[in-house]
């Protein structure tokens, strides 16, 4: 068989992305999935966006800026027609397109994809394993943004004007569009500095600066074209500096010496060596925009969600090092690249078979395997009419909203930053109770549905021993506690 013939070439063009797709098939287990589906369902049933809180007991009627409203429509439409399978496949498709745009931007050859894709898949596995969610879409839009910018940087392509509708769509998909605006600004600055360092003529610099700045400003205005207007910016900025963010996992730094922390250290070493090779090869001025990754790498030490963007932005700095491993001759590059991808795919099936991961997907598996929720506990609450003054576990809120609409959760994943005009925050009230920093016995709740994994559960058992509460129901996943004499 001719390795350079048309059929093998088509196979080699697709195979790295096939590996990415298969490796990215996961059972959806986002704890917010249920309320995303419910918001999408509401839109399709009522023909309008739900703006006020009708799903939780606490802060009922609160109006909020749902910057992921379009993601909710996509989630519901997919789930309603194709179930969990549809969400799994959609998530894998989004990841594959993300790899496509970033690799297209860096002009990765077959061997570079073969060596880099498995490494990237390993680095971003904590995000990909949740399956379809708004963050995956944001990463894909970041890839599109960088691709469009690089096209302009290299050949002044008019494709750069597509960034304007991209920001319009992005701001309706996910609040992380604000990160894209920041990336675009940094790319512009680095590109103009690079033009100065390479002594580009003044006319070209002025023309490019006007075009890029104009597109950036128009992108900012385009992002405000959504049902919530400029409030999407206020909502995005509200995430920065909010004291309650420190209790949400994705807004925390990596735990020191954890596996994810070592991943971060490995990525930092790769970035440092890549930048060093770029400098030694005299290519820094021409590739200055590749340094856009470093601010996000620095931020990732404070907030782990910036890691996923960092890994993809690092691709151009990873390329120089791959040259040390690349065999001589295109034929051997293809053979060795195929071997690497086949080995990775085989190892993936051996360690955690992607097909088995998505077999027999259901809410029961979602509960038992990922969230630890208990249908039987909720059924007990309904049967015994214990839904008044009920406190529920934060991570189960979305699941309850979708699966048990007759049992309103007290709080759910929408609400960690909500604060009404009086200054009341449901999360600020809830979290000290969950962690037993405030005594549940002095709270406004008479019934509690809680996982045994939280400190509050131990305190409730103490109150049972003291005769103040009773344990009305218990299984391996949840307990239902009722205040006496309620």
Extended strand count: 4
Mean pLDDT: 90
The residue fraction in helices comes out at 55-70%
H-E string: HHHHHHHHHHHHHHHHHHEHHEHEE
- Share in β-strands: under 5%
Number of domains: 2
Derived from helix and strand composition plus strand pairing, the structural class reads: mainly alpha
Describe the global form: globular
**N- to C-terminal separation?**
78 Å
Number of helices: 21
Q: For the CA atoms, what is the radius of gyration?
A: 25 Å
Stretches where pLDDT falls below 50 for ≥5 residues? none
Question: Main beta sheet, described?
Answer: 4 strands, mixed
For the largest sheet, list the strands in their spatial order: 1-2-4-3
Structure overview:
The protein has 486 residues and is mainly α. It is 59% helix and 4% strand. The chain folds into two domains: 6-356, no CATH class; 372-483, no CATH class. The protein has helices at 6-23, 33-46, 69-106, 110-123, 125-128, 134-155, 163-173, 177-197, 202-223, 231-238, 259-280, 293-299, 306-313, 315-322, 330-352, 354-357, 363-371, 375-383, 397-403, 426-434, 455-465, and strands spanning 390-392, 447-450, 469-474, 479-483. It has a four-stranded mixed beta sheet with strand order 1-2-4-3, sandwiched between helices. Helix 1 (6-23) packs parallel to helix 15 (330-352), helix 6 runs parallel beside helix 8 (177-197) and helix 8 runs antiparallel to helix 9.
């Amino acid at each position: 068989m001719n390795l350079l013939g048309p059929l093998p070439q088509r196979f080699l063009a697709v195979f790295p992305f096939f590996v990415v797709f298969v490796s990215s098939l996961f059972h959806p287990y986002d704890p917010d999935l249920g309320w995303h589906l419910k918001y999408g369902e509401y839109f399709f049933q009522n023909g309008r966006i739900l703006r006020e809180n009708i799903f939780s007991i606490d802060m009922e009627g609160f109006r909020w800026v749902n910057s992921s409203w379009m993601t909710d429509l996509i989630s519901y439409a997919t789930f309603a027609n194709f179930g969990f399978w549809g969400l799994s496949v959609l998530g894998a498709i989004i990841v594959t397109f993300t790899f496509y745009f970033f690799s297209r931007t860096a002009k990765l050859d077959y061997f570079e994809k073969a060596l880099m894709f498995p490494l990237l898949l390993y680095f971003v596995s904590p995000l990909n394993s949740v399956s379809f969610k708004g963050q995956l879409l944001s990463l894909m839009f970041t890839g599109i943004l960088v691709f469009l910018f690089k096209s302009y940087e290299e050949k002044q392509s008019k494709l750069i004007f597509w960034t304007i509708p991209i920001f319009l769509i992005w701001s309706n998909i996910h609040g992380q569009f604000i990160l894209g605006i920041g990336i675009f600004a940094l790319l512009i600055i680095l590109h103009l500095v690079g033009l100065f360092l390479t002594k580009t003529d003044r006319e070209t610099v002025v023309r490019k600066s006007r075009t890029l700045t104009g597109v950036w400003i128009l992108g900012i205005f385009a992002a405000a074209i959504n049902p919530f207007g400029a409030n999407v910016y206020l909502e995005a900025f509200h995430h920065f500096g909010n004291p309650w963010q420190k209790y949400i996992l994705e807004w925390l730094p990596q735990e020191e010496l954890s596996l994810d922390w070592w991943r971060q250290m490995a990525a930092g070493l790769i970035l440092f060596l890549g930048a060093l090779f770029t400098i030694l090869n005299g290519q820094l001025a021409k590739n200055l925009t590749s340094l856009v990754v470093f601010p996000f790498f620095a931020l990732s030490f404070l907030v782990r969600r910036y890691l996923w963007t960092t890994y993809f932005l690092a691709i151009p700095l990873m390329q120089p090092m791959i040259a040390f491993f690349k065999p001589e001759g295109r034929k051997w590059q293809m053979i060795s690249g195929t071997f690497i991808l086949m080995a990775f795919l085989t190892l993936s099936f051996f360690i955690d078979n992607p097909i088995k991961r998505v077999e027999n997907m259901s809410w029961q598996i979602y509960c038992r395997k990922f969230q630890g929720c208990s249908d039987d506990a909720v059924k007990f609450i309904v049967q015994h009419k214990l839904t008044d003054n009920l406190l529920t576990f934060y991570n189960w809120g979305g699941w309850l909203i979708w699966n048990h609409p007759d049992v309103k959760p007290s709080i759910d994943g929408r609400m960690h930053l909500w604060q009404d005009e009086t200054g009341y925050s449901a999360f600020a009230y809830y979290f000290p109770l969950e962690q037993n920093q405030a005594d549940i016995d002095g709270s406004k709740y008479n019934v509690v549905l809680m996982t045994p994994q939280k400190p509050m559960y131990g305190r409730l058992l103490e109150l049972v021993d003291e005769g103040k509460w009773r344990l009305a129901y218990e299984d391996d996943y949840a307990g239902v506690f009722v205040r006496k004499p309620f």
